[in-house]
Specification:
The chain has a single domain (4-103), classed as Acyl-CoA dehydrogenase/oxidase, N-terminal domain (Butyryl-Coa Dehydrogenase, subunit A, domain 1, Orthogonal Bundle), CATH 1.10.540.10. Helices cover 68% and strands 0% of the residues. The chain contains 4 helices and no strands. The protein has helices at 23-36, 38-58, 61-72, 80-103. The longest helix has 24 residues, at 80-103.
Length: 104
């Protein structure tokens, strides 16, 4: 993912500012977030599954073009602790991955 704000647009098409990832990727992201902070995980999950998915599947193209880029960008305001926690999760995950690779 290109930025932490894309945590809130995991499955959203890159044309609308999202990551364009699969549902499985979204599940993995939510699980990793939950390991560090379950409340951030719930916010990310609700935003991705209840908000973005409904717009992606049922909204007209005009509505998608208007709202999905805003929901995928920094126009969605989060408390600064969200980004601090997201950075921590990325660092820990990369550290765990590096340790795993060294054991191969």
């Amino acid at each position: 993912m290109r930025s932490y704000s894309q945590l809130m647009a995991i499955e959203t098409d890159p044309d609308h500012g999202g990551a364009g990832a699969s549902f499985t990727s979204a599940i993995l992201v939510i699980e990793e977030l939950a390991k560090i902070d379950p409340s951030v995980s719930v916010c990310c999950d609700v935003h991705n599954t209840l908000v973005n998915t409904v717009l992606r599947k049922y909204a007209s193209d005009a509505v998608k073009d208007k709202y999905l880029p805003q929901l995928s960008s920094s126009k969605v305001r989060f408390h600064s602790s969200f980004y601090a926690r997201a950075r921590l999760i990325v660092r820990r995950t990369m550290s765990d991955l590096a340790r795993f690779i060294r054991t191969l």
